[in-house]
## 1
Amino acid sequence: MPRPIQALIHPDALKHNLERARASAIDARVFAVVKANAYGHGIERVYEALRGADGFALLDLAEAERVRALGWRGPILLLEGVFEPRDLELCSRLNLWHAVHCEQQIDWLAMHKTHQTHRVFLKLNSGMNRLGFTPQAFRAAWARLDALPQVDEISLMTHFSDADGSRGIAHAVETFESAARDLPGERSVANSAATLRHAQAAGVRADWVRAGILLYGSAPDFPEHDIAHWGLAPTMTLRSKLIGLQQLRGGDTVGYGSSFTAEREMAIGIVACGYADGYPRHCATGTPVLVDGVRTRTVGRVSMDMIAVDLEPVRAAGRDTGIGAEVTLWGEGPHGTRLPIDEVARAAGTIGYELMCALAPRVPVAIA
Ligand SMILES: *Cc1c(COP(=O)(O)O)cnc(C)c1O
């Protein structure tokens, strides 16, 4: 028998979350962002559930090919555009829409020989200072693209630095609005956080939203809001089983470095899950975990293949604490229980995005 660890992908939850994106952005079309192999879920595993989206957005050309290979004939947007001139051949062949964020990409387009005209998303740097034209250079870039026979449609996009936080997006929206004033073309500005938090704000009513993390059941602004607040459902469960039991006496320690010391007698369970599965090693004693649906905590250090969990609350609840008892690291537990990935991420000092993307290849994945 293989190790009992398993990841489950929940198509119904993906569908539900997509509907949630639509409800937040009623007038907009929705790009389902499936970069990073659909945030670690697997593009092929989420495709059926997300094909109700109006388009897919990603940034790896090989991933765009995979989406086309699944039979998708609708829009695919390359969020970072092309990385070298010959990538444009694939854009022509697969009819990919692509961001244009720098002069070099316009130079490449100008030299690109094609009969297939391209739709591009001209990207403004509205303050993030990663990719995009400055407000001063934006209109000249638009005019250059407009003059190219290779380009048949120019849309306008930007990406917010603070949609999930206290600074908000008003300053960036203003920058975008003034740079884009009077320019024709569809607009795309909102990521998940902007879609959920700022969809009502004037100026964010755009033609296309780019929904990523919300589709995958993680709150972009946790811990200010959790998925229950936003009405989202977990799309990935990581579960395993107890493979060992230890009865500790007061003073006994657990794991490498003896970082946890039992104050009194206690039962702990050993779970077949470690950092080589993608469970973060940064999770200290006290990280939430479910055993047979009962919320308890990890104790001691995460090792490569195992973690230890406190079984006392599980015993007190009269639930299964034997070898083989089900352990939920995140996602949906037994008996209708749930442990949001955001809570585990916080215990590791990171965000849900990183945990889902880091699910290790050795973990078998099934579709629920
Ligand atoms: C990743 C990404 C998104 C989606 O972001 P979420 O926070 O996951 O919704 C949107 N736009 C761009 C340009 C991105 O790179």
## 2
Amino acid sequence: MAIADLVNDHIRELRPYEPGKPMEELERELGISSSIKLASNENPLGPSPKAVAALRGAVGEVHRYPDGACFALRDRLSQQLGVSSRQLVFGCGADEILELLAKTFLSPGDEVVFAWPSFAMYPIVVRGMGGRPVQVPLGADLAHDLPAMARAVNERSKIVFVCNPNNPTGTSVGADDFDRFVESLPGSVILVVDEAYFEFARRPDFPDALAWLERRPGTLVMRTFSKIYGLAGLRIGYGIGDAELVGYLERARHPFNVSRLAEAAATAALDDTEHVERTRACNAQGIEYLGRELAALGIEVLPSDANFVLARSGAGTYEALLREGIIVRPMQGFGLDDYIRITVGLPEENERLVKALRRLQEGGGGGA
Ligand SMILES: *Cc1c(COP(=O)(O)O)cnc(C)c1O
């Protein structure tokens, strides 16, 4: 008897998520100590100092279980968002909110519609419950093709994911297109709007997804503390939805899924508007810098509403940059073989990347 025969079919066929390469790993491999990581859309400025202070204050209490209801954070965030505290569900990263959605709504054979390329966790959580991913290709501009997604929805569809701004392209959809799309969805499908990069979006007509919660109860908006708030290592994200829908996700959730440290840091981070503003300004400047400098090198860069850019740098650039001690994200897994995804770093990190790309073009790169 082989263990493989005992495993659920849909788990046996899963391909695990491939995270960005850790800096420690690259440094071990190259025997260097000064690598930079522009691969996982982390905040280059680090966590909010207020969050760090809150962590220090909470650390002596870790012998106690966390507050399973996240009362303090729930209270603070519901005020900030103008929703009831019963409309919020917290997870071990927004990734766990995806898991809770899949566990709550999907049975084997159920279809889930989303764009592709988009967030790599969608097919994993859907397949993990035996669901069927229906991946709708992005349009020619590598942005969501919402009309095509609407056409892909049928009576077998349980969930639709819209990732806005989209990872890994950085493209976003505007309010008119978004509202028309939501209008057209049957009430029988759960709409999940993944706004992991919401706080970075700059287009003036960015959709107000929260405005749909009252009109369309089967809607959940997802956000995270991993990106602009700089708390990726703590693992905390959340969903905002109608109280009934959120109540079902709460049933599926483990009682202590958010750690005491994560709750303390997230609550403090919400109050650190200065850190958020500084991050947004650093990012906007980095997006403009990379757009300009890469264009000057003849590298096409997609317009981005997030904290990363997708760049058509040619096949092999990922490996060549690794040899320069720079970790970006390869896009082969998405069928975008000649692209890389670059997280906006500190100004000096962005400059180091541009210099390395220039050297590679001049044929001087790829030493080591
Ligand atoms: C990073 C990311 C998430 C989730 O991040 P967590 O660290 O699990 O909160 C969700 N969706 C998208 C599109 C992301 O890029």
## 3
Amino acid sequence: MAVTLDSARELDRQDPLATFKERFALPEDVLYLDGNSLGAQPLAARKAVAETMDQWRDDLIKGWNQGWFDAPERLGNLLAPVIGAGEGEVVVTDNITLNIFKLLGYIIGQRGDGGGVVLSEGGNFPTDGYIAQGFSRFGGHEHRFLPEGESLEGESLEANLAGVDVVVLSQVNYRTGALRDMAATTRLVHAHGAEVIWDLAHSAGALPVDLNGSGARYAVGCTYKYLNGGPGAPAFIYVQRDNQRHGWQPLSGWHGHAVPFAFDEDYEPAGDITRFRTGTHSALVYSALEASLAMWAEVDMHALRTKSLAMSELFRDCLADLFDPYGITDITPAAGERGSQVSLIDTEHGFAIVQALIARGVIGDYREPGLMRFGFTPLYLSFEDVWQAARHFREVLESGEYRQPRFNVRSAVT
Ligand SMILES: *Cc1c(COP(=O)(O)O)cnc(C)c1O
């Protein structure tokens, strides 16, 4: 390979984030390049869940007054600095799909009577479009798609904004890894009298995000990818401070009520970010996430970004000579224009190559059509891990291993 193992090890010696790896439980024989789908387990998360189990056993319902009930706001405040938000601007709740629905209703509800127009981007993670369609269908609104491929161009976005009330955009595209300029796009959308809901699924914990500095008013994101909250960990909503009291959000449940335990007949939204909660959450999954977020509070996000880009570059450098001979197209954007992943396309063999890698303990993922995705998570991957993963990739191709029939069998979750 063009890059030597010694040079990868030298990068590890100079890595300011190297010690975080010890704080994760990772199987010995696995090189995990799928932290962009499900983050690895922090050791502290296992301990925190065990403690919450004890608390449930010993304190029973008293637990709700011992930190369970206000966990959505407390965790929101822990998360806020990681995404450039302020105190009281983030609440951890529900999942991205529901949170987009809530924000769509909240924003369109402010804009007077009559149907609104919702714009989703083609090529985004499908649930963002699906929920916008469901919202529009049942609310008498119009849903449109921003055509895929046009979606990164400021000018075409402008052409597509006529009459639009709210647009849902990902900061980092889940397939290509392309990173949008959040500040410029937010300005453009606002200048057209529309609002934007930013989806941070592939940017929160992947790179420094600056919601306040970008002028963003609304955002959602999940915590089970780069933020290591665990399977099914709750998502979050960000609403900029001055925009938290504009009306109801449509999933007006008791936990979003101004006085939930008054048990009033009529709904009255809480006067702050709590308005975006719905109903009862799981104290267990919140405790796992809280342990992870406490660790994130120690992370220098600029060091994280530097390492993330260096790792994805190392992976590509190790493999660059193979792409042409094997018919693989590297669609990874340039360093300043990507999130924390490498995206390679092989429509014929991509699925089988990823399965052959998984059989060797190198876990990436495959997304139709033809996309091999490798996520780089600086807290628990070393440069040597990246080098070894690339070595396996090379061996899978050069040996022809991926042609074995067993690597062409599909299961439910890919
Ligand atoms: C992962 C992801 C989601 C997941 O949505 P959930 O409702 O939390 O399951 C949504 N949008 C994007 C862009 C994603 O990458």
## 4
Amino acid sequence: MSRGLRLSALLALCVAVAACPDDEGHHHHDMQRREYPQVPLAPPTRPLQWGDVNVIHTTDSHGWLLGHQKLSEPEPNYSGDFGDFASFVSHMKRLALEKDVDLLLVDSGDLHDGTGISDGFPVGGIDAHDANKFIAELPYDVMAIGNHELYIYAITLDMHQSFAPKLNGRYLSSNVNITVPDKHGNPVSIPVGDRYAKFKTRKGRKVTSLGVIFDFTGNDKNTTVQKVEDMVTETWFKEVIEEEPDFFLLVGHMAIQKNKWPLVFNAIRAVHPTTPILIFGGHTHIRDCVQLDGRSMSLESGRYMETVGWLSMDLDKRGSTGNLTFSRRYLDPNRVTYEWHSKRNNFTFDTAYGRSITKGLEQLAVNYDLNFVYGTAPQDYTISRAPYPANNSLITLLAKQVLPVALAINNTRADVPNLIIVNTGSLRFDVFAGAFTKNDQFTSSPFTNYFLYIPDVPAGVANAVLAELTKEGETRRRRDLELEAQRDAHGDVDHIYRAWLERMDSAHDAERRGTQNNTLGYVTSDACPGVGDDIPHTPLPFYSTPSYAASDPPAVSDDTLIDLVFDNFFEPQLLTVLNGVQSDKNYTTADVATYSPTLINAMFGQFAQAKWN
Ligand SMILES: *[C@@H]1O[C@H](CO)[C@@H](O)[C@H](O)[C@H]1NC(C)=O
Ligand SMILES: *[C@@H]1O[C@H](CO)[C@@H](O)[C@H](O)[C@H]1NC(C)=O
Ligand SMILES: *[C@@H]1O[C@H](CO)[C@@H](O)[C@H](O)[C@H]1NC(C)=O
Ligand SMILES: *[C@@H]1O[C@H](CO)[C@@H](O)[C@H](O)[C@H]1NC(C)=O
Ligand SMILES: *[C@@H]1O[C@H](CO)[C@@H](O)[C@H](O)[C@H]1NC(C)=O
Ligand SMILES: *[C@@H]1O[C@H](CO)[C@@H](O)[C@H](O)[C@H]1NC(C)=O
Ligand SMILES: *[C@@H]1O[C@H](CO)[C@@H](O)[C@H](O)[C@H]1NC(C)=O
Ligand SMILES: *[C@@H]1O[C@H](CO)[C@@H](O)[C@H](O)[C@H]1NC(C)=O
Ligand SMILES: *[C@@H]1O[C@H](CO)[C@@H](O)[C@H](O)[C@H]1NC(C)=O
Ligand SMILES: [Zn+2]
Ligand SMILES: [Zn+2]
């Protein structure tokens, strides 16, 4: 790309975020991504178990195609980028040829929303349209649609028009349709990709594949998600599963436990009691494995390219009824892991094709100006590895430093004492020590929440509101299964991921933590036989997160009138609580005004520019 073009792309972005510097001299553009691990990484210690049929699984990559680039533990363990992954897949394909076995590559959806590579597109663009071109270069056998492909119609349309055709019938959306105009301009509802795929493996094995999503209800207008229980009664579905393949390959965006997979599994088992069934799930961002019977295995492979899943199966004679031999492994995606398992070294690992993907992604980061440095974070700030309000909690940083600083910029009310309350759901990923870049702004808090305020609230009342919201947040997190089901249907899965971290943490007491040499990472205990993690780790510490957090209350008397500032996300709850803690005034939306036009997705950058430079 020419310099002129790059500059205009940069300027377009500056207009979009209204936060670019006028003096480039104060900010360096660090174009150099770490291409090779900068810390020594330990190799795995046991080879993968290969079978007749082997599958490499990715899921919920959410734009993390450049890998995790920070130096704080455990990030380097996930430092492999998609070019490295592409080279790995090539080498594994060659190994499969040598062993004369099948090797398939599958993905369970959620390609969008998570990093600047997907979300940092210029004005007028579409989330992940550019990044997905690199994904489509990998030899995926089957990919399935995720809920993050369905929140915005333009994204679903892009998947339908640009992405699905590149997969040649292997982008599956068994229960998801999109409405588009037909050639006469009349709306028609059709599958986003294909409903199913039937194909033969290199070894000539017949495969029937489906791509199913959970009962998602947060999808945009003109997209349709059919309930799984309705899908399995459809005529097309019954026809597709009627013929017996050598194995069924079910890939879908749905947790492998406590969800609707058994409906699909049972529908197939009713017709084919012993045909092998492989299930690859996703969406809840955890590592998990379960066997619905002895001739089937279900695998879920984490999130954010922090995990690459491996599954192998030995087949027996058609008509056999005994248990099949399976294995599964959760790999930490980095070059050392990839090199070790594909029997390569640092100098024989890269393929021209892998390098071209890495280079292409790096160029995309330059085009999106993702390496722009706002400032330098002095330490790690994590969402759940530190207790709130410790100073290394990201929630503390947001509530007590980022918001007070960012909201005061160009604000005529900055001199009025205030209490700022924020919903902690507006954080997505940890902030680590070192350069805080535009990409980090996208990963940490990409949301478009903004701040409202009510003037002249007595400080005592504002503090009572905070106390009440904190209490409510606590009880709400503990009970209310109904609310949880509602959140699940809308695709909010953070509570499931966090519960997994919590179980992991509480299973390892401090004593064992201290005597182990292992590095931090996931410690999976699932329902499948044997050890799943490729590399033993010590679990990440876990602390539960409050639903609400606030700036330090101003040092004023209870009857001093202050600004009560809050995130627009919970305006109705705030008004209810405010009217509950006092009866002097009936507050309504008419008392609420915009405090600042700055969106939360720009605030960390503004803060870093002001305080971390
Ligand atoms: C994970 O990364 C850390 C650096 O944070 C490194 O010391 C360690 O060796 C890595 N672990 C493995 C198993 O590769
Ligand atoms: C849905 O798509 C049809 C056909 O393109 C269009 O006429 C209609 O306005 C769309 N509906 C909504 C709510 O966007
Ligand atoms: C999906 O599209 C197919 C093909 O047009 C149509 O037959 C089916 O009724 C649609 N399903 C839903 C749930 O809208
Ligand atoms: C076969 O596998 C099932 C499911 O994993 C298990 O419950 C059962 O005990 C196994 N049977 C034998 C004979 O190993
Ligand atoms: C791997 O090769 C690259 C490129 O030659 C080099 O910069 C890097 O230091 C090497 N790393 C190791 C661990 O040998
Ligand atoms: C954070 O707290 C620790 C322990 O209380 C202290 O040593 C450290 O200086 C604090 N860091 C900052 C940036 O305030
Ligand atoms: C604050 O106002 C100044 C002067 O109008 C402007 O240059 C700057 O971009 C504004 N800052 C923010 C963060 O809006
Ligand atoms: C821990 O690591 C050190 C340094 O590599 C090694 O000398 C020691 O034997 C290890 N301890 C255990 C319990 O594995
Ligand atoms: C408060 O105002 C709202 C909106 O005008 C009204 O619906 C409600 O009845 C009022 N409540 C009280 C207690 O006056
Ligand atoms: Zn996801
Ligand atoms: Zn999802």
